[in-house]
Fold these 3 entries.
Entry 1:
Amino acid sequence: GGSGLLERLAPRLKPQALAPGDTVCRRGDVGRHMYLVRDGCLAVIGPDGLPIATLHAGTYFGEISVLHIPGNKSGNRRTATIQSVGYSDLLVLSKEDLAEVLQEFPEARRDLEEKGREMLRKMGMLEEGEAFPVEVDREGLLKKAERLDKALDSLRTSLARLIGERQSALHKMKLRLSRLERWLDTCEEAAAHRQDRGQVKALVHGQAQEPEPEQVQASVHGQTQAPAKKRAWNQLKALVLGPREIQTQAQVEDPGQP
């Protein structure tokens, strides 16, 4: 009932004292509070700057811009300027506190909205029709918005985790490729070393055959030319057999040489 509503509102009300000529709010300002007149007198100033109404103790104002009435052409902006005629005392209620309390008292919300719509009709600032339904499930919309926020947070967390896992996988793959390259280099070096040892052993035992031109052209990297390979072969024979053995072997192979 009304007493329960007042009990819920009372702890949230904040006093505000006004001197003569003080302006509470101006036409076109964004509304963030509604006001209850505790004592004194206030004037409602029209667009032409002249008073069009007065507010006395026990009345309230400012609710239109904080209730989000469907069809309100002014939206959440003040529809009039309010000034204190003399010394006045107000009770101020924030938009957030009003919305929280009215969730518990839907009938009071409907009464305030209906009075607000009546005032907007008189001022010609209400658009009525199917595009502006009277009843809006604000609580349901708020809950949906909260669920959407939670879902977005969950998606952001999942995306960040996936990005981290992908970067970790790429790093591990690079390490594996690097180890594989080193292993291949080691295998090539070992194979080349075994081949050189076999050739040295064959030279020592006099069983080595000079490589064919096709074999000379082949190298570990596939880029060495035949003359370079032949020179390397001759240097290896000179190192193992000595110059005299090479000369003797050449005379045996080619008796016509001096």
Entry 2:
Amino acid sequence: MFGFASRSASRAVASRASRVVVSRGMATEKQIWNQIQSTKNIQKITSSMKMVSAAKLKGDETRRMTAISFNTWADALNGPPKPVEDATFEELPQKSLIISVTSDKGLCGGVNSFITRSVKNCVNSLNAQGKECDVAVIGDKGRGQLRRLHGDLIKMSLTEVESPGNFTLAGAIASELVAAGAGDYDAVVIMYNGYVNAATYHQMYKVITPFGGEGENEPLLAYEFEPDTKSEVLADLHEYLLTSQIYHSLMDGAAAEQSSRMTAMENASKNAGEMIESLTLRYNRARQARITTELIEIISGASALED
């Protein structure tokens, strides 16, 4: 009696173990079906996000064109933006403040990673040249990536920034930077994504130097300043110039972010479709194998009854 019970228990344990092995080694029809439904739901979300980004991109393009027209006067004082690619940053002075313009949200391709990489390259180049620099970060994604390697250089970070931005927001950011000591640096460097079209954007940087110097190097010699002193007017003009450049960078970066998100969601939807096709093929094969097995069992049972 005891031997029969032991053999029964052993067979039960072996049966359960074999079922566990089969369950782990090969997905059942139900599991594959659940994967198909989950992938379809993800595809719906990514398709919706692509359409939303496409709609937002139209507005961002309009705001960007307005910002370009508004910021034209700044190019005459500091020069046009320069591409980060192949830049040596030798023109930067001894002490600089690097402003990284990123976003608070993800799912937008390499928009934030490219800016972070550009900032790291700039910091390394300045250190190799024996120059000093600090970093101010706009956007939570940029802060999270930069603080891993250059956390000691981050003097200021601004997160949960309203998107899309406006000139009032840019003015508030510029005021925070000036209050934090941006005027004590020899130059302020803004790194951002420059929008080209819906499929292309480039990393750009602007160099904003304070209005200083004496003699022939004194700025704006052709102008008279009344009733305030020239130093006060130049300090206010420098803050206004910083505001205008930040405003243009925010608008350019917002358009690049939406275009990159639209492309990323399109690729995600395409990959989801390919995965659904693959899972459907697996599901049909598993279903066909189950039906074939059931037919074989029925035929075998019928043959056994005839015998």
Entry 3:
Amino acid sequence: MYNNMFDCFKKTLKAEGLRGMYRGSAVNIVLVTPEKAIKLTGNDFFRHRLSVNGKLPIEREMLAGAGAGFCQIIITTPMELLKIQLQDAGRTAAKEVVSGGGVVVAPKASTIALNLLRTKGIVGLYKGTAATMLRDVGFSVIYFPLFARMNAMGPKKYPGSEEAPFWYSFICGLSAGAFGAVAVTPADVVKTRLQLLHRAAGERQYTGVLNAFTSIIQHEGFAALFKGAAARAMVIAPLFGIAQTVYFLGIAERLLGVEKQRK
């Protein structure tokens, strides 16, 4: 077990080397772009559809965020499932070796995906969907209204403009992303536990989201639901700061040669 983020970093680096720190990165590189594209454009779509006379009350902002979060799980769930297996391979292997299980070979993302498709079909890639939905919908309900209101309160590019300068959108994305990431950490912890396909000897099994929540609290205490909150905030905050800034700057429109409407 790890005592904290720094202890995890040190032990992983020592046991698996620098390469072990980047397990699962290939899955992220391939799937994180379409996942963020769905989330950001989905939120804009639902905000447009839910607006009344050009205005969007807070409850409709939250509903738009929920819609965006719901749409993204088609990409997020298999992405998270594969990433978790790769990232957990070193820890599980170390436990198996200590317990006398011999050498355990770390799996590849393609091997995991093919095995799941062969044994359980496409449904196998969506193990933990309910917990993923709880996390992603919850995050989007918090993040998008918070970002939109923070962004609207700040400085503008020029007098009469409705757009914030890129640096302020970046700060808003950082802040809203960090807050949302910490707030939904319990759902992320439960999702991670449920999506583990291979467990070392002695590790608990969970039958569902509610069972995972109650079992973690019972055996590890309420604080265990917030394990990794700091690490999540450190990853999610810059990710959404950058993504939101790129989205607002209209870089995709420039690459596609589409004129971005200025306000």
